[in-house]
Amino acid sequence: MQKIYIDTSDQLTQFCETIKTSSWLAIDTEFLRENTYYPVFCLLQVSNGEISACIDPLQIDDLSPLKTLLFDENITKIFHAAFQDMEIFFHEWGDVPSPIFDTQLAATITGHGDQLGYGRLVQKILKITLEKDQSRTDWSMRPLDEKQLDYAHADVIYLGQVYQKLSQQLQTSGRSDWLENEYQRFHSSDTYNINPQAIWQKVKGRQHLKGIQLAVLQTLAAWREEYAIKSNKPRRWILKDEVLIDLSRRTPARIQQLDKIRGLEKGTIKKNGHHLLELIRIAKQRPQEEWPTENNRPLKLTPQQEALADVLTCCLRLIATENDITPAAMASRKDLEKLVAGFDDIPLLEGWRDKVAGKLLQDVVNKKLLPGWDSDGRLSLIEQ
User: Fold this and answer.
1) Which of 69, 173, 212, 383 shows the smallest number of beta carbons within 10 Å?
2) DSSP string, 108-175
3) CB atoms within 10 A of CB 180
4) What percent of the chain lies above the pLDDT cut of 90?
5) Which residues pair with 172 in a beta bridge?
């Protein structure tokens, strides 16, 4: 396969013109995020099965030919674990390419396993072992050496081959349309836009707080998020999660009390200490009906409901075996407990998961189906 490196606008324009009639393009991106809130777009690799290109967005001012190519509705764009790639495009252009094919998602419903990494999937399907020595490289440094470029090219050269294998398997099994709902989520701006008022739900350790402490956490986490966005710095550089939790638990009222918060740096106290105290004071004045609640606390099920969740676990394994899909790809234990408790806003009851397992498990809950021995002596779901 021909391999090229593109770092000028003229080269990019010519390349995009050359491959614009391709039916599919395998795509990957390299980025850095250690020192910024938003990912720094460092490299894009693209291959159509005949030519592979590493495109340098750090050297090219006008990426519009690339955008036109990626947003061509007549070309299927192939990714592996597409979210981070799509996040970069959304940040760059306010939209994402379509249509797409995600090999990690496709592997899940073709019997190859759940959440497989790219290297492992290539090994499993193509019997090719990829080098891993450049996985921690600094993609912002220039020039990129031969080993780095070979590593980058491999991410799309084999991706296209994996796509062809998985696509055929999906067609053979009649599952080609199963992932449409999954792909639609990539096109929702809510997938990429962060709501500062909801970010507290991602703070580690929040489950140890309650009541007004959660209101303080929500306020402080929202401030941290807005600060990180404005300064384009990682949120952990502003305040670490454990500091947020400690502030929310102790709710200090005086500047001297901030010195007792482990991990809260003196420079932060000097710069933002008084503002943090004011945020805590305001949060503590919120009426109780405005306090947030932790929805991820373990459900309190009755012994009978716990037993039913155990039965659903057994049923899920049966369904997974029959469909050659791992149980974890369809539902977690928490999903099954929510189903028992009467919740219906769970992934299990959406898209292909509902088609394969959700409806059947609801029938078990409603006593229409139960696991038992069929006429062939196999354990399966039997109508009641």
Assistant:
1) 383
2) HTTTS-SS--HHHHHHHHH--PPP-TTTT--TTSSS--HHHHHHHHHHHHHHHHHHHHHHHHHHHHT-
3) 11
4) 91
5) none
pLDDT at 300: 87
Output the six-digit token pair for 313.
């676990």
8 Å CB contact between 138 and 40:
no
- Please check whether residue 7 is in contact with residue 13, taking contact to mean a CB–CB distance below 8 angstroms: no
Q: Using alpha carbons only, how large is the chain's radius of gyration in Å?
A: 25
Q: Strand, helix or coil at 227?
A: helix
Angle 98-326-311 from CA coordinates, rounded to 5°: 125
Among the listed residues 80, 82, 117, the one whose alpha carbon sits nearest the alpha carbon of residue 97: 82
Chain-centroid distance of CA 222 in Å reads 21
Angle, vertex CA 185, rays to CA 180 and CA 186, nearest 5: 100
How large is the average pLDDT for residues 175-194? 93
By residue count, the chain amounts to: 384
pLDDT given for residue 66 in this prediction: 97
- Print burial letters for 6-40: b (CB count within 10 Å at least 16), e (below 16): bbeeebbbebbeebeebebbbbbbbbeeeeebebb
**Domains observed in the chain:** 2-191 (3.30.420.10), 196-290 (1.10.150.80), 303-383 (1.10.150)
The answer to whether residue 296 scores a pLDDT higher than 80 is: no
List pLDDT tens digits, range 7-37: 999 999 999 999 999 999 999 999 999 999 9
Paired sense of beta strands 51-55 and 40-47, if any? antiparallel
Which region holds residue 49: left if phi is over 0, alpha if psi is between -120 and 50, else beta?
left
Of 379, 359, 331, 381, whose CA–CA distance to 108 is shortest? 331
Distance separating alpha carbons of residues 38 and 56, to the nearest angstrom: 18
Q: How far apart are CA 137 and CA 161, in angstroms?
A: 25
By three-state DSSP, how is residue 228 classified? helix
Phi/psi at 4 (5° precision) = -135, 160
Per-residue pLDDT at 131 exceeds 90: no
